[in-house]
Amino acid sequence: MPRPASASSRCSRSATNNAAAGGPSWRTTMHRLAILLLCIAFAAPALALRCGTGVVSEGDSTFELLQTCGEPTLTEHTERQVSYRIYDRVHGRYTTAYDTVPVEIWTYNFGPRRFIQRITIEDGRIKRIERGGYGY
After folding, report:
1. Predicted pLDDT at 14
2. Quick check: 85 and 124 in contact, CB under 8 A?
3. What is the C-alpha to C-alpha distance for residues 72 and 86, in angstroms, rounded to an integer?
4. Burial class (CB in 10 A: 0-12, 13-18, 19+), 56
5. How many CB atoms are located within 10 Å of the residue 72 CB?
6. How distant, in Å, are the alpha carbons of 7, 44, 95 from that of 26?
7. Quick one: 49 exposed, middle or buried, by C-beta within 10 A (0-12, 13-18, 19+)?
8. 131: Cβ contacts below 8 Å, ≥ 6 apart
9. Helix-strand-coil percent breakdown of the chain, rounded to 5?
10. d(Cα 72, Cα 57) in Å, to the nearest integer?
11. Sheet harboring 115-122: ordered strands across?
């Protein structure tokens, strides 16, 4: 009576048969997977700005932005109104109040081969990163 093949010999035979049939070998598949994982690990987040070897993203401080990317090409100062509800005890109801929040927009121009980046800053933190057209 023939002995059943062990699990390891079955795996190696199927990998050999797969490679012989023209498909990728187990090693080739693992090599491709390792490269893909490395690319994902070193990719910048979707809402991030790469400056040289550093990366800043939403939520980072202006200090980190200055350390990583340097001074911006253009700085704009504006403000936006924020509404919130407060309870009016005299009249016994809620009312809407408004407050102004200072907003800075920093623009980075990295030259004609890269996109212009506009960073919106509120309360000393990066709120939004927007990509414009090519720089000049």
Report:
1. 47
2. no
3. 38
4. buried
5. 19
6. 16, 30, 66
7. buried
8. 115, 116, 117, 118
9. 30, 45, 30
10. 16
11. 74-88, 93-108, 115-122, 125-134
- Sign for the CA dihedral angle at 63, 66, 69, 73 comes to positive
Q: What's the longest Cα–Cα distance across the chain? A: 96
Structure-model confidence comparison of residues 30 and 5, the more confident one: 30
Look up residue 25 and give its amino acid.
S
pLDDT digits (tens, 9 = 90+) for 65-105: 999 999 999 999 999 999 999 998 998 999 999 999 999 99
Cα separation, 62 vs 122, whole angstroms: 10
Structure tokens at 23: 């498909």
Characterise 124 by phi-psi region: left (phi > 0), alpha (psi -120 to 50), beta (else).
left
